[in-house]
Design goal:
single chain, mainly beta, six-stranded parallel beta sheet, four-stranded parallel beta sheet, 7% helix, 39% strand, globular
């Protein structure tokens, strides 16, 4: 735990059929930053949640699959990405591909997602249950983002290789600015 961020590292991260995986949200935490360092995609086949209002970031450079019964249960925003790292304003990275990188001694909020060339896919097969309250952002950021069916409110970002900025004002605003910048 560093400031308002809570860090988790997993060799593998999956939520099996009928299971529920919840992250606890201690009082001062606003962001739960989770990386998967192993070589397999994450399969979210049931409920993934946060016990509180914190935002959840899940990065797995090997892919993320939301099965037909996947469900989000959280009070904050959710960012799922096949980026290889989260980047902070002091230049440090919370890397899934180089987990032995220098420790994060002082960090604020993440300011970007670093995607490598040919980033893995994110697949959503969830039937209308992959959503969050209207005031929160659901962002799926990866190489190929495949939505079957398309949820009501989701921000999709596909990239070959990029550093996508995130700001403290709004994940949605930051992702839209990044999309506009990549289109120009």
């Amino acid at each position: 735990m560093q400031g308002s961020n809570l860090f988790h590292s997993f060799k593998e991260f999956n939520v099996g059929e009928g299971a529920k995986a919840y992250f606890t949200n201690p009082g001062e935490i606003t962001n739960i930053l989770t990386r998967v360092t192993g070589g397999n995609a994450s399969n979210i086949l049931a409920t993934l949640g946060v016990l509180g209002p914190a935002n959840l970031f899940l990065i797995n450079p090997n892919g993320i699959i939301f099965g037909p019964n996947a469900h989000l249960d959280m009070g904050g925003s959710f960012v799922a990405s096949t980026a290889n790292s989260l980047v902070f304003d002091n230049g440090l990275e919370f890397s899934a591909t180089n987990p032995l990188s220098p420790p994060l001694l002082t960090v604020n909020i993440p300011v970007g997602l670093r995607l490598r060339e040919n980033s893995a896919s994110i697949v959503n097969q969830s039937s209308a249950v992959l959503y969050l309250p209207q005031t929160n952002t659901l962002a799926l950021v990866g190489g190929n983002v495949i939505l079957i069916p398309v949820p009501k409110k989701v921000q999709v970002m596909q990239a070959r290789s990029a550093l996508l900025p995130l700001t403290r004002y709004s994940l949605m605003e930051s992702l839209l600015k990044a999309i506009i910048a990549l289109l120009h």
